[in-house]
Amino acid sequence: MPYDGGPMTEAMYYVLLALVHPNHGYQLMNEIEEVSNGRVKMGPGTMYGVLTRLQKDGLIIVINDDGRRKTYSITEDGRTALKIEYERLISMVDDGKIVKEARDE
Amino acid sequence: MSKLVRRFKLGQLWECGKNESWFSDMALKGLHLQSFGSFLVIFEKGMPKKIKYRIEILEESPSQEQLDLYKEYGWELAANSQMFYIFSSPEELNAPELHTDPMEQSFTFKMLNKQLKKNMILITILFLSFSSQIFNQFFLQDEPYLFLITRRSFTYIMIVIPYIYVLYKSIRGYFAIKNIKNSLLMGRPIRHNENWKLSYIFSSIFYVYLFAMIITLLFTPYYTSAQRGLYKYMTVEDMPIISIYDIETGPVYDYWHKVRYDWSLLSPKQLSISESGYVEGEMQDELSGAYTSTSIHINYYELAFKGMAEGLLNDLINSYCREYKYDDELVKIEDSKFDQLYLDYGEETKLIFASFDKKVIQIRYTGNADIERIISLMEEKYIRRILLDKPIRIKLPTNN
Fold first, then answer.
1. What would the pLDDT profile of B94-115 be if each residue is shown by its tens digit?
2. Cα separation of B6 and B26, whole Å?
3. pTM above 0.95, yes or no
4. Is B210 strand, coil or helix?
5. Mind telling me how many Å the CA of B48 is from chain A's nearest CA?
6. Which secondary structure element, helix H or strand E, spans residue B51, and what is its range?
7. Helical H runs in A1-105?
8. Residues of chain B contacting residue A24, judged by C-beta atoms under 8 Å apart
9. B181 touching A (Cβ < 8 Å)
10. A28 contact residues in B (CB cutoff 8 A)
C-alpha cells in the first residue's frame, strides 16, 4: 500500500524517526529502542517489512551498499511525511487534553 | 550423513498456522525441517526438540545482513520455497516474535493476495472451458452411454477430479489469505497454532491420486497395445463372437476378417469384428452367379456394471438408426433367453441388438441364413459360456 499521508503505523513512524540519522539494519533496531526509551521492541521481521515498504514508497533510500550491509537514510518526502505525522500526533495529544481537564475539575 | 525423511507437502505454505504447527510437531519427533521439493518436504532425522517455526513472506530474497539480524534475535533460516522463508527457533531461547506489528505484517500478505487472485481467476477460466467441453460430451450427446464407455471419457473423469480439488483450493486459498490480511489489518496477530492433521490427510490423498493418475494415463496405451496383441493371436473360435463359418452351412470362400479391440474402465472388453466371404449356391439372381456374398459385423461390449447394459443397448440402436438412416421398427422379443432382444428380420440385412448380464451385442448380418440360427448360436456363445464358465484358450501361432 503506497503511503497516502494517512496515519502511520507505530513501526513505520519509529523507523522513519530513527533514520533521520543514516543507519543500517542492525544498529537501527537498537536505535529504535533507544529513541522510544525502550518502549518499542520491534521484531526483525516487522522492521525489514517496513524498510522494504518505505523504500518502495520513496520515503527512504539506500545511501550505501557495500554488499554486506545497507545503510538507509530518510528522503525529503520521508521528512515531510514524518513532519505531517508528528503534527497530527501533536494535535491528537492536544485534543486529548480535555480528558485531563475533565479529571482536574 | 544424517538420515532424511520425506513427507508430502501440507497444502500450501501460506497456510502458516498449519504448517508451522506441523513442523513443530515433527521436530518433537526428531524430524527437523530441511528443505522443500516440488511435492515433498524433506526432514532431517535428529534429536527430538521443541522448536518454533515461523513462515515469512519476502518479496526479495533476504540479504546476509537481514539473516544475521534474524539470527541475533534467535531465528535461523531453516528452509525456503519461492517467496516463503521458514525460520526456526528453539523453544527454550524464548525468542521475540519476528512480527510485532500485525498491521505491518498484513502488507506482506498483500502481494500474495494479489497473486492468489490472479491464480484463482486463471484456474477458474481454464476450469470453465474444460468443464464445458466435458459437459457437452457427457450430457449433450445423443448417446451418453456410448461416450461413457470410451477411454476418452475415463481420461476426462480422471483429470477433472484433481482439477476440481485445485479449483476448490485456489478459491479457498484466496479467501483465506484475504481474511488473514484483513484480520491483521485490524490488529489481530496471526494464529501460529492450528490443527494440521485433517489438511495433511487431504493433501496426501490428493498427491497419491495425482501420482496414480499420471501413472495410469502413461500406461494406458501400453496396456491397450498389449491387449490388442493378445487378441491378434486368438482364434475366432475363442473370441466371444459368432463367425460366418458358424452361421453358413457350406464352405466360405474369399474369407476376410478384421478385429478391433478396445477397453475402458467402464467396459473392460470391447470388440468390433467384421467378416465377409462368399458361399456356394443359394443363387439369388442371375448376375451374381453361383456364389452369394455373406458378411457379419459385430460390436461386442462387456461392461463393468450390469446397470449400464440397457442404456448402452438403446444408444447402440439410436446410433445405428442415425448412421444408416434406418427408420424401420425393431421388434422387441419378450420371451427370449436374453435380458433384452431387438430384431429386424430383414430380407437381406438382419439386425440383432441383445444384452445379457453385462454383455451387450450388436450384430448386422447380410446373407441367407435365418435369424433364428444366429440367435441360437448367440445363446450358445453368450449365455451358455457364462454358465459353464468356459475359460478362453489362447493359441499362439505355431509358425512365424
1. 899 999 989 888 888 888 889 8
2. 11
3. no
4. helix
5. 27
6. strand B51-57
7. 10-18, 25-35, 44-57, 76-95, 97-104
8. 65
9. no
10. none
